[in-house]
Amino acid sequence: MMRNRVREERAVRGLSQAELAAALRVSRPTVIAIEADRYSPSLPLAFRIARYFETTIEDLFDPSEEEMTT
Q: Which of 10, 33, 37, 60 measures 20 to 30 Å from 66, CA to CA?
């Protein structure tokens, strides 16, 4: 799985997982799974997350760990 900074970005903004899920139009379990690195979001969802946090996909998601295991 790909490591990410979604939890950190959400915490900085003081958002709950439910608030982030609503803003991204996904379920709270989806946000939980992404934050726990149990689920890699689709490319369209990754773009929505990056846009929401006003950052780039590259800054939010780190593929280096995934590349090492493939």
A: 10
Instruction: Note the pTM of the prediction, 2 decimals.
Output: 0.85
Per-residue confidence in pLDDT tens, the chain, 70 aa:
678 999 999 999 999 999 999 999 999 999 999 999 999 999 999 999 999 999 999 999 987 755 555 4
CA distances from 14 to 4, 8, 42, 68 (A): 18, 10, 25, 33
The pairing of strands 61-62 and 3-4 is antiparallel
Cβ atoms 62, 2 nearer than 8 A = yes
Nearest to 9, CA basis, from 52, 66, 45: 52
